[in-house]
Amino acid sequence: MFDQVTLKLNVDPYILSALKEDITSEDVSTNAVMPQPKLGEVDLICKQDGIICGLQVFARTFELLDADTKIELYAEDGDEVTNGQLLAKVTGDIRVLLCGERTALNYLQRMSGIATYTHSVAALLAGSKTKLLDTRKTTPNNRIFEKYAVRIGGGNNHRYNLTDGVLLKDNHIGAAGGVKEAVTLAKEYAPFVRKIEIEVENLDMVKEAVDAGADIIMLDNMSHEECRQAMEIIAGRAQVEVSGNVTKENIAVLTDLGVDFVSSGALTHSAPIMDISLKNLHPVE
User: Fold this and answer.
1) Distance (Å, rounded) from C-alpha 89 to C-alpha 92?
2) 4: Cβ contacts below 8 Å, ≥ 6 apart
3) Is 104 exposed, middle or buried (0-12, 13-18, 19+ CB in 10 A)?
4) pLDDT 10s digit of each residue in the chain, 285 long?
5) What are 50's strand-pairing partners?
6) Does the model's pTM come out above 0.85?
7) In this structure, are residues 274 and 116 in contact, taking their beta carbons and an 8 Å threshold?
């Protein structure tokens, strides 16, 4: 759950921006059928099995439109939910319920889809030492929501943004003039509390990265056999991350390597949404 400071400073502005995207001047449909305030209630219903995530953001969407809106939740983020389950009841001005519906559901469906997919992938690593990581391959302006959903699903966050840590990729290496040069320059520039991670694509680069003193070596798009040989070369002198087209379909074969981390952009860029609806809207006295 987002704490109150994070909610007000870093979450509310994004929700408000999403609401502004959907309502540029007025909700014509709602104002046509409901010209005056009227108290109403609507049910939040899950329409498929999965891991629910984003209930706080869902509720906040309506609260930002009208602080008097009441949301009664019957589940918590991280719960396993089932098709047909009643997740919440929302009570407030019917006009608010109607014009906030799509934005609130967009967040909830997307975040729950990521949590559900992450949960299924993380289960394939159960019993191994390998931790599942996300990437920066997130929807623009939705990173805070999507990375939160990964954690709720049982995954772990890699860097939040470019300020968060040093990760030297192929183009950084090209700009620096080589693996050794890139690591050396990073060690000279970065604060001592920062670990230096570098992406490598072959065994020669692995050897260079180890000799240069990289803290974390990312094996990018290397074959299973190449990864095994890389682990022998590294021999515990650096932490190891495997990356590159890692999905639910192929991640299980990596568990025998003994790597520290596996990162997967698919957690955020390929997770399908969860089907969730607001139903049974009706006036209340």
Assistant:
1) 10
2) none
3) buried
4) 899 999 999 999 999 999 999 999 999 999 999 999 999 999 999 999 999 999 999 999 999 999 999 999 999 999 999 999 999 999 999 999 999 999 999 999 999 999 999 999 999 999 999 999 999 999 999 999 999 999 999 999 999 999 999 999 999 999 999 999 999 999 999 988 899 999 999 999 999 999 999 999 999 999 999 999 999 999 999 999 999 988 888 888 888 999 999 999 999 999 999 999 999 999 997
5) 81
6) yes
7) yes
Active site residues: 137
Query: Which tokens in the block code for residue 266?
Result: 């698919």
d(CA 178, CA 195): 19
CA distances from 131 to 19, 123, 125, 232, 285 (A): 36, 11, 8, 20, 52
Joined together, the tokens standing for residue 91 give 């009570």
Structure tokens at 2: 């987002």
- Cβ proximity of 214 and 184 under 8 Å: no
